[in-house]
Amino acid sequence: MNPSQPFILRPVATTLLMIAIMLCGLLAFRFLPVAALPEVDYPTIQVQTFYPGASPDVMTSSVTAPLEVQFGQMPNLNQMSSVSSVGASVITLQFGLTISLDVAEQEVQAAINAAGNLLPADLPAPPIYAKVNPADAPILTLGLTSKTMPLTQVEDFVDTRLAQKISQLPGVGLVSISGGQRPAVRIRADIRKLAAYGLNIDDLRTTLGNANINTPKGNFDGAMRAYTINANDQIRNANDYRSLIVAYKNGSPVRLSDVGDVIDGAQNDKLGAWMNETPAIILNIQRQPGANVISVVEGIKALLPQLQASLPAAIDLDILTDRTVTIRA
Fold first, then answer.
1. Do 229 and 98 have their domain in common?
2. Which pTM value belongs to this model?
3. What is the extent of the structural domain holding 61?
C-alpha cells in the first residue's frame, strides 16, 4: 500500500490536516523559551563563609579544608574549587546533569550541617550557599541613589526590602549588594587616653563584646502567673555606645567617649560604587542554573513598582543593565 494514497484520495481532509498542523505550530512557537545560548547549565552551588579578621592561611586550614572534606563525599559532584581570602572563603560546587539543582541543594545543606563541629566555635554565622554559577553574568543590575539620605540608610533599605523580596522570585539564584555602605558603628580608640586610665585595647574589646550580647534575662514565677523578663541589650547607634562604661577609676566611671570617638558610618569605608557620577548602591541579580533569563527578568520587572512604593520617596531606583535586551534583539 502506498503511504501517500489516502492523502491523494482525500484532498480536502489532507488540506484541513495541514492547516491544523500549521496552527498548532504557530501556537507552540509562542511558548518556546528564548535564551542567548542553548540550555546546558550544570547544577552549580556557591558556598560562602565569613570569618572577620582571619588571614587566608587560617581560612584555608580552619574553614575551607573541613568543608571540602564534607563536600567531597557527596555523590554526583563533578568539580569543586575554592578561594580563601582575608576573612572569606568561597567554594564552588558543580554537579552532573543527572542530578537536579534542588537535590544538590539538600546534599550541600547536609554537608554543611555535618561540618558544623569542625568549624571555629567563634564563627559569626554558619556558611551560606546560593544556587548560582559565579561565572554567569548578572541578568539585571539595579542602581539606587538618594540626594538627601546617606548611603548607609539606602543600603539598609535595599538589604531589608529589595534584596529579600527579589530573592524569593522563581529562578533568582543570588542577589548581591555592591557599594560597601553597610551600616555600622565605628569606634576609633585613642591609645594614649586608654593608657592614661590604665587600660588597653583588649579591655575595650572585651567590654564592647559583653555589653552587646542579647541573652536570656530569666523569669518570675508566682502562685498564679509566671512572667518572662524581656530586654534587649544590643546597642544599635553611636549615642548609646558613647555612654557605655568601660571601667571605673578612682570611683568615677570611664565612658567610651572618654577614650575614643564613636560615629555612625559604613562597615567598610574603603569600598564604594557609582552610577554615572553619583555614589550609589548597586544590586546585582543572577539567575539559577537552568532558569530562563527572559522569564526571570520579566518577573523582577513586574515586582519593581511594588518595591519602589515600599521605599522612601527620597530613594531613586534605576535599571542599569538588562541582559534580555540583547537576547530579544
1. no
2. 0.66
3. 37-134
